[in-house]
Design goal:
- By secondary structure, the protein is mainly alpha-helical.
- The chain has a domain at 33-50 and 59-101.
- The chain is built from two helices and no strands.
- The protein has helices spanning 15-54, 59-99.
- Helix 1 runs antiparallel to helix 2.
- It is rod-shaped, with a radius of gyration of 26 Å.
Length: 114
């Protein structure tokens, strides 16, 4: 007697999800590295020119330069604070995209990833 085995066939629309997840992970990694590099390079640059800034004799110009540098670091910190919210929004959009079946182009958007 001959045994027959049934082949397993995957169903669902997961083709676009893998690429989107890889792009999400790569994008977050690049964004974090950019924030780290910009912060450290900005701090190092400030350390190099701090003596030049202190040598400025005009008090209005000196305070403007220091205020500009401080506001630049504040903006960088604020951007870093918003990064988790942006990542969460992208993850939610990706999940909704998969659940609502927007990845199925052949079926007219009626299929779903589930």
């Amino acid at each position: 007697m001959q045994e027959t085995t049934q082949m397993y066939e995957k169903k669902g629309q997961m083709g676009g999800a893998v690429g989107a997840i890889i792009q999400l992970i790569t994008g977050v990694g690049v964004a974090v590295l950019v924030l780290i590099f910009v912060g450290s390079l900005g701090g190092q640059t400030y350390n190099l020119v701090e003596s030049d800034i202190d040598a400025i004799s005009n008090g209005t110009v000196k305070s403007s330069v220091k205020n500009g540098i401080i506001s630049g670091f504040s903006a960088l910190e604020q951007t870093g604070d918003y990064l988790p919210i942006i990542v969460l929004a992208v993850v939610i959009a990706l999940v909704l995209y998969l659940v609502l079946g927007m990845t199925s182009g052949a079926t007219g958007g009626r299929g779903s990833a589930l």
